[in-house]
């Protein structure tokens, strides 16, 4: 019994010492419920300015499709700007200072009556 408990303690300590592989709190699933295809989805930190963007999409995000966006350890902070560009239109949508740590999904929506794009955070 003494050796069994020693073994359990050793296993517990080795697991505690392992690096954490938990998902980053900023990782988010983006669901396109706008009715239109999206060609660009970008996130940048508020201090980066509005000219520095990387496209998170490998291909066009069709209506009713989703994509999972993962952040790197090098990325700092919970608050990010989000930009969406449409496939068939030369307009972009920009949301500033969105706290990604408080959500796991963004459902993008478009209201044709008001011509407004919004998101529902989950």
Strand order of the largest sheet: 3-1-6-7
Low-confidence stretches: 10-21
The secondary-structure element order is: HEEEEEEE
Q: If you average the pLDDT, what whole number results?
A: 86
**Helix content range of the residues, please?**
10-25%
Computed Rg:
20 Å
Polypeptide structure, described:
It comes from Bradyrhizobium shewense. This is Argininosuccinate lyase. Keywords: Signal. The chain is mostly beta strands and 122 residues long. It has a domain of 82 residues. It is built from 1 helix and 7 strands, in the order H-E-E-E-E-E-E-E. The strands form 2 sheets. It has a 4-stranded mixed β-sheet with strand order 3-1-6-7, with no helix packed on it. About 10% of the residues have low confidence.
Concise synopsis of the structure shown:
This protein is mainly β and 122 residues long.
Features:
3-stranded antiparallel beta sheet, 4-stranded mixed beta sheet, mainly beta, 122 residues
Detail the topology: elements first, then pairings.
Elements: H1 2-17, E1 28-33, E2 38-44, E3 66-69, E4 79-86, E5 92-99, E6 105-111, E7 116-121
Parallel strand pairs: 1-6
Antiparallel strand pairs: 1-3, 2-4, 4-5, 6-7
